[in-house]
Amino acid sequence: MSRPFGPGQSDEERYDGGMGVRREVLSDAHVDRSIDATTDFTADFQDYITRSAWGDIWSRPGLDRRARSVAVLTAMIALGHHEEFAMHVAAARRNGLSVEEIKEVILQAGLYCGVPAANVAFKLAQRVLEETGDL
After folding, report:
1. Is residue 74 helix, strand or coil?
2. If exposure means fewest CB atoms within 10 Å of the residue's CB, which of 31, 40, 74, 135 is most exposed?
């Protein structure tokens, strides 16, 4: 589902739209766990990522969610952000990527990011896909 994007949105509109996108991509259960774990120390960060990452970037019209998932998976492999990579494997499935396409993303990233990075990514993706019943 696309959200309105553009100049003139209030912080509250960006937050509300971002929360909707965040829930659609990551799942209600994941977002609820993040909200439940929010503390006074992390509240500003949660607000920031909801408005900026989800209300601004993920809501832009220039790429569909499938393409954004490909970009995110590749970036997480390249940067070695394993926990985020695993979370976004499940998100990629919700965004319509097939298991075969996720495999191809990891293979492509392995060429440019290195075999060790792809090796870890395959292990993490297999675990997530088994947990979700996709393998």
Report:
1. helix
2. 40
CA 51 to chain centre: 15
Mean pLDDT of 85-101: 98
Q: What letter does residue 4 receive in the DSSP assignment? A: -
Quick one: tokens of 96? 């319509």
- pLDDT higher than 50, residue 2: no
Residue with tokens 């607000």: 47
Amino acid at 59: S
The Cα 6–Cα 42 span in angstroms is: 27
Query: What's the angle, vertex CA 85, arms to CA 80 and CA 93, rounded to 5?
Result: 155
Q: The pTM is what?
A: 0.90
Give the 3-state secondary structure of residue 96: coil
